[in-house]
């Protein structure tokens, strides 16, 4: 059997979803695989009465997840908003997996996303041979979700051109998708809803129109509140990715993860963790997702070019790449941080030297 590089959430956590569905006796909205309570348990993690452990998929404020789930149980769509790296896509995928058992009905937003990606397209060979027919129509992921009563996902909504964004208005307000070529329409069945993600930090975004904003209930996902919370997020995701990629390396020491997280938080906040020294922030977002990437790439270096144990020299290259997005401005910020903070901090001499050598 061919090994899959990245399983969908409903595949990776199929056992957890099956156990929750089996014990879940609470009311379920139409076409939901499990109840809202079970969805929140799946996302936030818990130990069930039968002793089965549900792993947490999101570490943060419980109330935000509850609001998101409750929104999807109504006729309003959900917009997950936040800076890059706050787990918007991650939460979106797991919500769809838990509710519909299918997280693949997705439209990836880019500057080149066309209206057909959200509405429908045509099989042009059939269209030329027979004209516009139902067989020639190619449904979008959103149309399929409407017909099947499932959750559709639109990633990076604000990267989609404004006129294409507004093609969602009729879908979200009327729950129908007109098909004028066939003089008909696709009507959503119960269970259909839409999760969109957007960030308010990156350049090149297209603001949502007021009409479209009104169709969404917005939940802002914040950056982790504490360093301990962010360390736990990084640790869990790195362990999961390491297993998936089958990296022959030891699990990273908690202290190495904490150093990476500390650097990211200090550069993001513009001050040291003790609040005594102000520092400049780089142009990048310094997100939790990038911290995960730094540790994960360090593990790969340690596994294939070291002794399997994550060390300062293994994470140094990833740190420089994550911080220095602008080769002029960010390099000045990074070198200043190394000299004023890292060099003077107890136990960080190895990291300072490794970063200076890059």
Please render the helix and strand layout as text.
Layout (H helix, E strand, L loop, with lengths): L8 H4 L1 H10 L12 H9 L1 E2 L5 E2 L7 H11 L4 E6 L5 H13 L5 E3 L6 H4 L1 E3 L1 H7 L6 E3 L1 H8 L2 E5 L6 H4 L2 H7 L1 E4 L4 E4 L5 E7 L10 H4 L2 E5 L6 H19 L8 H16 L18 H18 L6 H12 L5 H14 L6 H9 L1
Parallel strand pairs: 3-10, 3-11, 4-7, 7-10
Antiparallel strand pairs: 1-2, 5-6, 8-9
Roughly what is the average pLDDT, rounded to an integer? Answer: 91
Rg to the nearest angstrom?
A: 23 Å
Structural shape = globular
Query: Which series of helices and strands comes N to C?
Result: HHHEEHEHEHEHEHEHHEEEHEHHHHHH
Q: End-to-end distance, in Å?
A: 41 Å
Tally of distinct domains = 2
The SS-based structural class is alpha/beta
Structural notes for this entry:
The protein has 358 residues and is an alpha/beta fold. It folds into two domains: 62-220, P-loop containing nucleotide triphosphate hydrolases (Rossmann fold), CATH 3.40.50.300; 227-357. It contains 17 helices and eleven strands. The protein has helices at 9-12, 14-23, 36-44, 62-72, 88-100, 115-118, 124-130, 141-148, 162-165, 168-174, 210-213, 227-245, 254-269, 288-305, 312-323, 329-342, 349-357, and strands spanning 46-47, 53-54, 77-82, 106-108, 120-122, 137-139, 151-155, 176-179, 184-187, 193-199, 216-220. The protein has a five-stranded parallel β-sheet. A two-stranded antiparallel ribbon has the order 1-2. A two-stranded antiparallel ribbon has the order 5-6. Strand 8 and strand 9 (184-187) form a beta hairpin. Helix 3 (36-44) crosses helix 5 (88-100) and helix 16 runs antiparallel to helix 17. The model has no long low-confidence stretch (mean pLDDT 91).
């Amino acid at each position: 059997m061919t090994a899959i590089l990245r399983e969908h959430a409903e595949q990776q956590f199929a056992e957890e979803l099956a156990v929750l569905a089996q014990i879940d006796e609470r009311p379920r909205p139409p076409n939901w695989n499990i109840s809202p309570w079970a969805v929140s348990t799946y996302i936030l993690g818990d130990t069930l009465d039968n002793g089965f452990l549900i792993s947490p998929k999101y570490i943060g404020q419980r109330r935000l997840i509850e609001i998101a789930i409750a929104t999807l149980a109504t006729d309003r769509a959900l917009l997950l908003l936040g800076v890059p790296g706050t787990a918007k896509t991650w939460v979106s995928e797991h919500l769809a997996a838990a509710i519909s058992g299918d997280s693949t009905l997705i439209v990836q937003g880019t500057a080149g996303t066309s209206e057909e990606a959200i509405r429908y397209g045509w099989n042009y060979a059939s269209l030329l041979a027979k004209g516009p027919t139902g067989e020639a129509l190619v449904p979008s992921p959103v149309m399929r979700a409407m017909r099947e009563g499932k959750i559709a996902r639109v990633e990076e909504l604000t990267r989609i051109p404004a006129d294409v964004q507004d093609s969602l208005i009729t879908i979200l307000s009327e729950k129908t998708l007109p098909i004028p070529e066939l003089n008909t329409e696709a009507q959503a069945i119960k269970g259909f809803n839409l999760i969109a993600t957007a960030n308010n930090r990156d350049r090149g975004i297209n603001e949502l129109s007021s009409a479209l904003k009104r169709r969404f209930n917005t939940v802002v996902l914040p950056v982790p509140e504490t360093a301990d919370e962010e360390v736990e997020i990084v640790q869990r995701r790195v362990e999961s990715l390491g297993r998936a990629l089958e990296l022959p390396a030891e699990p990273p020491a908690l202290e190495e993860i904490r150093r990476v997280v500390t650097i990211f938080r200090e550069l993001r906040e513009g001050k040291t963790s003790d609040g005594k020294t102000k520092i400049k922030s780089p142009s990048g977002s310094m997100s939790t997702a990038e911290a995960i990437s730094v540790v994960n790439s360090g593990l790969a270096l340690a596994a294939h070019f070291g002794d399997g144990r994550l060390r300062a020299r293994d994470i140094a290259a990833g740190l420089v790449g994550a911080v220095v997005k602008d080769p002029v401005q960010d390099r000045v910020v990074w070198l200043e941080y190394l000299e004023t903070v890292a060099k003077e901090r107890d136990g960080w001499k190895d990291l300072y030297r490794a970063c200076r050598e890059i």
